[in-house]
Amino acid sequence: MSTTRTVPALPDGVTVGELELLCVELATQAARFIRDERPERMGVAATKSTETDVVTVMDRRSEELLHRLIQQVRPDDGILGEEGADVEGTSGLTWVVDPIDGTVNYLYEVPAYAVSVAVVVGDARSQGGWRPVAGAVADPCLRLVHHAGVGTGAWTRPEGQRATSTAAQDASAQPAVRRLVASGEDRLARTLLATGFGYAPEVRARQAEVLLRVLPQVRDIRRIGSAALDLVRVADGSVDAYAESGLNAWDLAAGWLIAEEAGAVVVGEGEHPGKALTVAAGPALVEQVRTLFLAGAQPDR
Ligand code: IPD
């Protein structure tokens, strides 16, 4: 399996570093918003695919904020958001945003949710047709922002510490900015594996069957409740691997790049992670985890 990354062609005059800084800035603003403006009594504004798939007023308001900010700074880019943002764009770049990833945790005040902002090239609406070039996952509870650009490494910085130039330069001047490195674990039996479940009961039933096979083979599993934070955990080595079926582009776009830039390999049923399957782990482990999840699996489309 190849882990070589080539920097995709960007529109004239745009650099990966510049897009990465914008991702950090936008994700930070939205993370502050959902934390600081959280209404005293949070309610469910609507449900999506099922009764358990909730949207809060703050999901919508956070996406409106991101939409507005993106259109101010990059008016020609496309936008695809979990809560319905769908702008075609003409530049060849699309912003793929999850205004609150981990909405159920947000609703219940479980401190594991995030804002995920990525810039991708290709067709963000087609499975396998796009790739992230820059991304940030902002964690409002820990007040941290995790970010990466293709070829720039994966980094974590405190929310208040503005990105100035390259993360590597920032890190040498500011010790709180640190580089993320994925775990080197190579044995399933010692693997702490993050996973998650969809909202539809029939999908969950199939995921539970997969777990029956997975659980006896690994050290343990974690269900954190935010795919973006699961992928960040792969990047910082605080879990060894992550696997889930049913993810959408906005759940994984930024986390995919952050995990990859930290040395993990991110794949799906084939090369591209997505709805059928997303697996992230170090190079020595990823194929073992993928095989475990695929053995006899019914794809969750
Ligand atoms: C969900 C979370 C969860 C994952 C689900 C996602 P949302 O996103 O990332 O961890 O298991 O598959 O849909 O709905 O909270 O944005």
UniProtKB/TrEMBL annotation:
One Pfam short name: Inositol_P
Catalysis performed (reactions): a myo-inositol phosphate + H2O = myo-inositol + phosphate
Catalytic activity, EC: 3.1.3.25
Source superkingdom: Bacteria
Keyword Ribonucleoprotein: no
Record flagged with keyword Lyase: no
Coiled-coil features, chain-numbered ranges: none
Keywords: Hydrolase, Magnesium, Metal-binding
Name the record gives this protein: inositol-phosphate phosphatase
